[in-house]
Amino acid sequence: MMMDNRNGKRKFPLSKLWTPLLxxxxxxxxxxxxxxxLSVKNFNNLLVQMAILLIASMGMSMVVLMxxxxxxxxxxxxxxxxxxxxxxxxxxxxxxIVGMIVGALVGLINGLLATxxxxxxxxxxxxxxxxxxxxxxxxxxxxxxxxxxxSFLAVARGSFLGGxxxxxxxxxxxxxxxxxxxxxxxxxxxIYAIGNNEYVCQYSGxxxxxxxxxxxxxxxxxxGLAGALDASxxxxxxxxxxxxxxxxxxxxxxxxxxxxxxxxxxxxxxxLGAMLxxxxxxxxNFMGVTPEFRNVAMGALIIAGALMSNVGRPKIITVK
Length: 320
What we know:
By secondary structure, the protein is an all-alpha fold. 71% of the residues lie in helices and 2% in strands. It contains 13 helices and 4 strands. The chain has helices spanning 18-33, 40-65, 73-91, 95-115, 121-140, 150-157, 166-184, 186-196, 198-203, 208-234, 243-255, 267-287, 291-309; strands spanning 2-3, 10-11, 145-146, 236-237. It has a two-stranded antiparallel ribbon. The protein has a two-stranded antiparallel ribbon with strand order 3-4. A hairpin with a 6-residue loop joins strand 1 and strand 2. Helix 3 packs parallel to helix 5. The radius of gyration is 20 Å and the shape is globular.
């Protein structure tokens, strides 16, 4: 919250209004053009469609809050979907845990590459994306792996809370946990501190390496959960199946108000970003546009979000 220096009153930053306003505009545009878009059935479909994106975006939010990035998020969804699907015949619904463990291991590696080897996360996660996608293709031999375990499929199809779909309940639980971590714990305060100034944190005695690595592991486990749920929902794991999630997840975090430099924003904004991206994708599907055009829209959202995050920030002038 900003302060107005002239009268001492709190001034609400206009940049925070862009995402909810754009969300309302999209609802009006698609709703007027396609009346069924505003139906109760479609609202339920939107919540289900948002599940994978929202879960993975919660982990990404914590990473970006630290001033880092994970470009391998889509490939992590792919490899965790493959891992959980391939053990589902033996472990059934417990295969979800396998996906989370594999995701946590990927997060650990990404964290170590960034902290111990000092490789910028943009470069290290691009490399990890290639490794994970290549590994998934080798494991699957280029073909989808169909899931037949009923208990594993029931995770996405079923309901463990009052008839509400697990694809609605699980993301809500993940969001609540992420809010608690970022807003109510010491770890959350350290995440924001590192995003604001990593070097000051180091000189203050904060174990930046441990915190960054641990946050990458949390992120990886959440992405692993998303990947396992994706395999359960689609009843299969496919090569490159997670790649379609990469741009939307980054767009969600940026449109949710977290700048790529970190230190500002939070998971509540990310929820709004997930709603915006899901409504946009669904509306474009109603229009029958091609996936290529959807990628154009996601790229435009990322640019728009980056511009919005700079609104109202003081400009630094360098004197040579």
